[in-house]
Amino acid sequence: MNIWERVRKGTQVVSEKSGELLEMAKIKAAVAKIETEIVKKYTELGELTYRIYRGEEVDDQVIKKLCEELGELHQELQGYRDQLAKMTTNCPSCKRAVKPGARYCPDCGHALHSEP
After folding, report:
1. How does strand 97-98 pair with strand 89-90?
2. How far apart are CA 83 and CA 105, in angstroms?
């Protein structure tokens, strides 16, 4: 393999890896957004619960809708977490999550795989 073939192959690998990292960043941003929305829904639900405690009238349909929305958000969140799990690997030695393409575990230094 001549130098230009090596450069081309190296460029291709870098491009693929950066694409993977970009996709992971997008998924992590989506996870953070959903987690924030979940906190908001729980806060709304807590406020409604407190109003009920104080003896105020609260429409049961509002509570039901919030609970359904929370269920959907949790389901969506799990889907993103499953995607992230498929994109990452764990160190066989210490079980820490390791970025794709890493040769060594950043925590314990264990060699993850051998490449030619």
Report:
1. antiparallel
2. 21
Q: What is the token pair recorded at 86?
A: 């498929």
Number of other CB atoms surrounding residue 24 within 10 Å: 16
> How much is the pLDDT for 116?
43
Provide the 3-class DSSP secondary structure of residue 61. helix
pLDDT, tens digit, for every residue of 62-113? 999 999 999 999 999 999 999 988 887 888 889 888 877 788 888 899 988 7
Encoding tokens for residue 46?
């807590």
**What is the Cα–Cα distance from 59 to 65, expressed in whole angstroms?**
10
What does the block give as tokens for 75?
């389901």
d(Cα 47, Cα 114) in Å, to the nearest integer? 55
Gyration radius of the chain over CA positions:
23
- Nearest CA to 108 among 91, 90, 87? 91
